[in-house]
Amino acid sequence: GSYDMETAEKNEPVHTLEITDKLRDAAVEQGFPLFQQGDIKRGKIRLREGGPNTITLLKNANASTFLHETGHDWLDRMLRDAEDDDAPEDLKSDAKTVLRWLGVGSVDEVKTRHHEQFARGFENYMMEGRAPSKPLAVVFAKFREWLLRIYQTAANLKAPLNDDIRGVFDRLLAIDPEKVTIAPDIETGGP
Q1: Which of 2, 42, 95, 103 has the fewest CB atoms within 10 Å, i.e. the most exposed one?
Q2: What ranges make up the beta strands (E) of the chain?
Q3: DSSP category for residue 183
Q4: What is the pLDDT along the chain (191 residues), one digit of tens a residue?
């Protein structure tokens, strides 16, 4: 492991923990207080090959929970559908864009941490308040307001977006995305 130079110079013992891929996946799948805010579970999804995925909202669910779990569902469906020989080329292209953004070379390399990145990325996309069409602008503005109350800043989601992945999310929500529409400002009733 690594160590802190200042502490090492004082000849004090330094304890480290290497975060391996296996440990990271276990933390995301099972949950460790070290990696969670609070230890509060808000929702979960059961992904089923050949059957419907099931989203469960738990007692502590908030405005982001359904969006987050929907992100898992959409990633699962997109990657499965894109593997079909008859899948449209634009779907296959979007799946490749997603795999690049996740930092993997194939669907087989997608792990729980990548699902979490995609789900947090979808929340981040919704928090930006940019709608892929004018009719969705008011809805996006509302989601932005809710998500900002929960996270205060998109940086807390730890899933930075680029224009390629924004385009994928746009196409998930609109058949023929228009130029990006910034959601109108919503007045809040105060603190």
Answers
A1: 2
A2: 43-46, 54-57, 130-131, 181-182
A3: P
A4: 333 334 344 555 544 446 566 655 554 454 433 333 556 788 898 988 888 889 888 888 887 888 899 999 999 999 999 999 999 999 999 999 999 999 999 999 999 999 999 999 998 888 888 888 888 888 888 888 888 777 766 566 677 888 898 889 888 888 777 765 665 554 444 44
| Residue indicated by tokens 């998930």 | 172
β-pairing, 54-57 vs 43-46, is antiparallel
- The closest alpha carbon to 161, from 107, 125, 109, belongs to 125
This model's pTM is above 0.70: no
